[in-house]
Amino acid sequence: MAPRNGPGARRALLGVAVLAAILFLAHEGLRPPAPKAVAAPATEFSAGRAREVLNRLVGDGVPHPTGSPANDAVRARVIEEFTKIGYKPEVQTGFGCDEFGTCATVKNVLARLDGTAGTGAVLLAAHYDSVPAGPGASDDGAGAATVLEVARALKASPIPRNPVIILIDDGEEPGLLGARVFVDKHPWAKEVRAAVNVDSRGSSGSSLMFETGAANYWAVDLYARHAARPATNSIFYTAYKQFPNDTDFTIFKAAGFQGLNFANVANVAHYHTPLDNFANADPGTLQHHGENALPSVLALANSDLSKLAQEPATATVDLAGDPQRDAVYFDIFERGVIYWRVARTLGFAIGAAGILLLEIAWMLWRKRLTPPAFIWGLLAWLAMILVVAGLAYALLWALRKAGALSVNWVAHPLPLELAFAALAAAVVCSFADALARKAGFLGLWAGVWLWWALLSVVSAWQAPQLSYIVVVPTCVAAVAGLPMALWPGGEPRAAALATIIPLAAAGIVSFGPLLLLYTGLGNPILPVTSILSALVLTPFAPLCADLRTARGLTRLSIPAVTIVATLLSAFAAIVAPPFSAKAPERVNFIYWLDADSGNSHWVVKPASGRLPEPIRVATNFQRVEKGPFPWSSNPAFLADSPHLEFRAPTFTILESSVNGGRRSYRALLRSERGAPVAAALIEPGAAIDSVRMEGEPVQPETEVLRRFLNGWLLYECRTMPAKGVEITFTLPVDKPVEIQVMDQSYGMPLEGMFLLKSRPLTATPSQDGDVTIVTRHVQLIP
Fold it and tell me: Whole domain around residue 142: which residue ranges?
């Protein structure tokens, strides 16, 4: 089917050039848009204006966790910003609890823009609290600033049909508590039919539309038609549902709200640390948030929402009233969205598979493709995928042993990502080159695309929202292969098109998600990126057969380059420092006083499980494999510390009574030293039930939490009042129960300043940061 001398490396090099161009476009497509200036038209979103708001909200760089005086100050600034742009904000105060046993008093800020003839309300939401360790400029100061700038633009726009409720809530970081209090206790929540939420898990990157409500075809259609730079795909939505991560949108979905959830995920090293500051908050990300949120809110606010009745999150309703319509969707370099109904996916896959089978059967019947060559092509594809999988996990193991993967996200991830991608390319090219003599161009082409056709049908059947990565290239291959299959003699140009066009399609639909996998999930996903990269590159295998007709070093150039790239990248990943000042290791210090024994300790919890050298030499630390507390599960380092006089927290039984085989208790949990956080931890197997804190029911703990706390049950108040909080619960009457009571304040005592000074620039506090903890033991005896 090719000239006697063969095409040499021409087609293979063209394939490489096409893939390189698509990779470049995919990388550039993940850049957020340029920020608009302060002088942008009033009806448009301006990152310049929003960044000024962000600076006023959190520019002082002070962490403001729920219940802190700093959080009161940020809330006052939010109220002032609402008032400036013509709203009449109100504060909703309430006590809420999550399913992990965490409770707090939260203070939400709400405002309202009335519509002309509402068919339901649209909710626009973000949160203003931060974690104790960082100022939260991106998480979620950028979200709050986005919401305020969108609120200003809404005031400058024509009055919408539906009212818009604007919520900047409190207590998201401890457990989505502000959203829970709004949904459960505010009368406006009953009007809401659709929600737009803005959050962050990093300080830069595109604003991704990564989650929707149920039956999302209408939502995807609305977003695709109105977003200027749509960044989304149904892989995000499907994968996100499998992970234990949550945002306020989780609460809105559970309440039956439909809608859209936006977040950025780049620079995760800054997330929940002091580096989540104003200087590191990307103005382009802020612009992209606004260009997503503003048109989405306007489109929803001017739609007929009457059919979006509030129903459970599993309800299958949509804006068009046609039930059970989900979408398969993906963006093309953030320039547009391709989407269709899930129900059509299996038909696409079966149709493409049928066409490919006919093409292969025709070439076999015409004896242009021999059965042995076809079988070798099938075996080649299978060998490529299996060998890549085995080598990728072996490489991950080797890099861990070499110390290159000491934390989930390293400071210099590029060598890691290149090593696993180059490994896939090396295996595909090497195997294709080695088996090309037996399979030939047509054998490799037929073997590759028959496997793709099978994957398309199976994935369309079992996981349709993930399937587009194989369905789209398979459909393209079925069409592009027709001229080659039907052309007498197999004209070389038709063969090139039959290979390069579907190869390009595979790159277009896959490279964007592949580039985000490590950013989103870290080291454990690296072998998966290798396997997916190999899958995407297998359509290149037939072009490697061309190399057998090339002369000299040209024949070995592509396999050799990929092998060398794998080795050099792996070596670079090993020698590259895992931490830097811009991407430091998370290292928290604890001063812990055990009030029962009077012993006190310095505790260090490095994310890598290894002490940084400056901290190691600061005092005599000993490693404890499962941490200092019975509920700890991660390694920590302990050293003796000076005894300081801190009053221990108390857990006082106020009342008890017996009903049947259980005893009911009413207890008071109190921090005697005025710490903002206090908790009671119940020993494993206690069979505690009917728990309420301040009258608010606390849901039974999830199995995930039980495993995380070694079976201990946590009941915690993150905004502990001076009077304490009442907890009611029941226990079996005939069983004594151990309770560990603890309180926690933010920061270290002065005696621990030497430790804080020993923390290198390549380390940073995170989440709760450095804390002082006092514990005591209580025994409940029936």
Answer: 47-333
